[in-house]
Amino acid sequence: MHRIIAGRKPVLEALRAGTTIEKVVFLLGVQGKVMVDIKSLAEQHGVQVIEAGKQQFRELANDVTTQGVVAVVPTKEYVDLDDILTIARERNEQAFILILDEVEDPHNLGALVRTAECAGVHGVVIPRHHAASVSTGAVKASAGATEHMPMAEVTNIAASLQQLKGDGLWVVGLDMGGEKLYTQVDYTTPIAIVVGNEGRGIRRLVRETCDHLIKIPLYGKLASLNASVAGALVMYEVAKQRRAV
């Protein structure tokens, strides 16, 4: 199986991350400094670079916005939960994991992974079913962060949270009915942040597994924030607390 990474920034980040790439395809006639950088980096990594006419390029990229360049890569390689914990230990840092409970919009997935990469998250966990996958749209929305971020795909989020709790992590779920504000939790310990579905929030069994349920105060007329925005606020609160000690 293959997938397409589309867009100048995502393709460049995939090359920088050492992602296995079968070939990079340019739309014939497209130029620019970033294109030169992509071609140079691809050649350094021994990746085939070809140019394609409009019809051939359109067939390859479908309806995705490409900015004139795509990379053909194997399906995303997922890691195990233990691999993510190992990454934290190797960095001599308290574990910081993002759990996405049935986030369905690829753009939200991509935006959350992008923020996670910037905030110092060690890995992202997604469910195998009923959720967005690391698709072309998700990769593009992440600006290529999906190629840097270790990700685990699991069959049961609640069971995975129990496993993480057994490894010493505290589980904090974002929930509109949370008993604490998102700034009232100590995030300097090993932590897993749970962001739920765009409409339904986190599921009951997942909610019951959480050690803390937190909420973000709302001062306007709308009842909720976008999932990726809410997740970003919490992830940066974690980053803020950890860098203040």
Name the helix and strand elements from N-terminus to C-terminus, one letter apiece: EHEHEHEHEHEHEHEEEHEH
Gap between N and C termini:
45 Å
Low-pLDDT residue spans: none
Q: Biggest sheet: strands side by side, in what order?
A: 7-6-5-10-8-11-9
Mean pLDDT: 92
Structural class: alpha/beta
Number of helices: 9
Number of strands: 11
The third-level CATH topology of the largest domain is Alpha/beta knot
Q: What is the domain total for the residues?
A: 2
CATH architecture of the largest domain: 3-Layer(aba) Sandwich
Shape estimate: elongated
Question: Largest sheet, if any?
Answer: 7 strands, parallel
Content of β-strand? 15-25%
Q: How would you name the CATH homologous superfamily of the largest domain?
A: SPOUT methyltransferase, trefoil knot domain
User: What gyration radius follows from the Cα positions, in whole Å?
Assistant: 19 Å
CATH class categorisation of the largest domain = Alpha Beta
> How helix-rich are the residues, as a percent range?
25-40%
